[in-house]
TrEMBL record, chain A:
Record has tRNA-binding as a keyword: no
Domain of life assignment: Eukaryota
Function of the molecule: General transcription factor that plays a role in transcription initiation by RNA polymerase II (Pol II). Involved in the pre-initiation complex (PIC) formation and Pol II recruitment at promoter DNA. Together with the TATA box-bound TBP forms the core initiation complex and provides a bridge between TBP and the Pol II-TFIIF complex. Released from the PIC early following the onset of transcription during the initiation and elongation transition and reassociates with TBP during the next transcription cycle. Associates with chromatin to core promoter-specific regions.
Family per similarity comment: Belongs to the TFIIB family.
A molecular-function term among this protein's GO annotations: RNA polymerase II core promoter sequence-specific DNA binding
Descriptive protein name: Transcription initiation factor IIB
Keyword flag Zinc-finger: yes
GO CC terms, sorted: chromosome; nucleus; transcription preinitiation complex
Amino acid sequence: MASTSRGDSLPKVQCPNHPEAQLVEDYRAGDMICPECGLVVGDRVIDVGSEWRTFTNEKATKDPSRVGDAQNPLLNGGDLTTMISKGTGAASFDEFGNSKYQNRRTMSSSDRAMLNAFKEISTMADRINLPRNIIDRTNNLFKQVYEQKSLKGRSNDAIASACLYIACRQEGVPRTFKEICAVSRISKKEIGRCFKLILKALETSVDLITTGDFMSRFCSNLGLPKQVQMAATYIARKAVELDLVPGRSPISVAAAAIYMASQASAEKKTQKEIGDIAGVADVTIRQSYRLIYPRAADLFPPDFKFDTPVDKLPQL
Amino acid sequence: MDEEASLENYFDHTLGSSDFHFEGDLGLQGSAPQLQDSSFLSSLTSREKDLTEDLDLSFLPDELSTQDEPPQAENDSRNEDSGVYTDGPPRDSTEGDTDTMNLACPLDLKSIALQARNAEYNPKRFAAVIMRIREPRTTALIFSSGKMVCTGAKSEEQSRLAARKYARVVQKLGFPAKFLDFKIQNMVGSCDVCFPIRLEGLVLTHQQFSSYEPELFPGLIYRMVKPRIVLLIFVSGKVVLTGAKERAEIYEAFENIYPILKGFRKQ
């Protein structure tokens, strides 16, 4: 609606005095105005503004909007079906208290499962505050998997959780499997299986996780200042570069790095706290910490301010 | 057991028809040999089902199986004869064979479980008798149709011998058991390339074959197309190969992977 260049199919309205001028649309009044002389050239353009002003908290239950929800054509196949909604007022109920006109039939029976899954995805993503782009990506992935039908036997919730995991990875902000488990009813094992199946079905791959992907989240959840977070990121990166922790999961290395950085700063966190946030056992942190402890002096960034010097770091 | 020696003679005299049919699958697709005694490598079989809950076998990855819930043993007692040479690729050691065979007579599992030693039978959990023998150390699943799955042997000959011993045991218990359709279904091998490996590099270049998820499993799962073998490659340089029907497939797969791994050696 906003574009003024509709191509050559429509007769172009022009200002009679200034044929070269690009007309400006005033959508409130439904006019097209010449910017040079101010002549109203075309009128009765369809007004796309809202019909009436709505204020918050003003009888919020009665939404007089007549257009309903925004359409989601990419995902639902763009159906324009309507359905009978629940009645309001006394007349819509018959003598037993049941509502008349109960016809709220399945609007799209084939996509009902998909809509359910979208709702579930939305709920899960909401629990961990994921932004809209990840949710959209997850929905797209789910739609692709669902249409392919190669994973038809699997529980839709499992596929939805796995799609959520993949979407987070693809957007560059990976969540650990345990974090996804925390918001889903599916076990980590099942999510992991579905994850691998989906990657094979969609013939995509994802980047390997690195320690830095999780630093900002874990550190903020622990309430560590930015300096400590930067130090922990540096420590973890250096530890992987120097190959001090071969074969260890990046999450465990990240947790150990956070432990070391926090113990060297004023904000000391226990292994248990870090383990709770990161989803790793505190023995795992201990193991990884033991591996990086000998080279602790090399791992810290050069400009780090030590509250506890390196030789006084706890030795576990 | 001391009966074994006498059973040997008994067997040789009585079991006349031992046709060794090597072809044909037995259709024992659903059974899952998962055993505590055998090394974890030998329990990486091509068909699995969750046998016993107390075996927490979730340590190893699932895709080695064709079924949904493969149990994997965490038991580290592998007698691995890796034969490591300091210069040059070391030999594998065949770790485990799984085979199936047909006893060709319907069996009463309850009586077998009651009479035989080292047999367990829990029909609510699994519909087969789980029998173990000590020499060669193997475990067998014996089904009421007469079909049997035997796992845990260290070589093809041992696997065959073990299967015959089980047939003997069943025969001693009074069933007219025969030894038909012995077929090796899966072979597992392990080896050590003696240098650390950069798994991240390998997964980058061989994306379509590799799957490396440190959160799920510490090893890289490489699915070789020809021969169709699955390899578990670890940072330490240890490699596990499974899914082979023949010994030669394992060797071929190792010959294929070795130059690739050399390219990703950690300096």
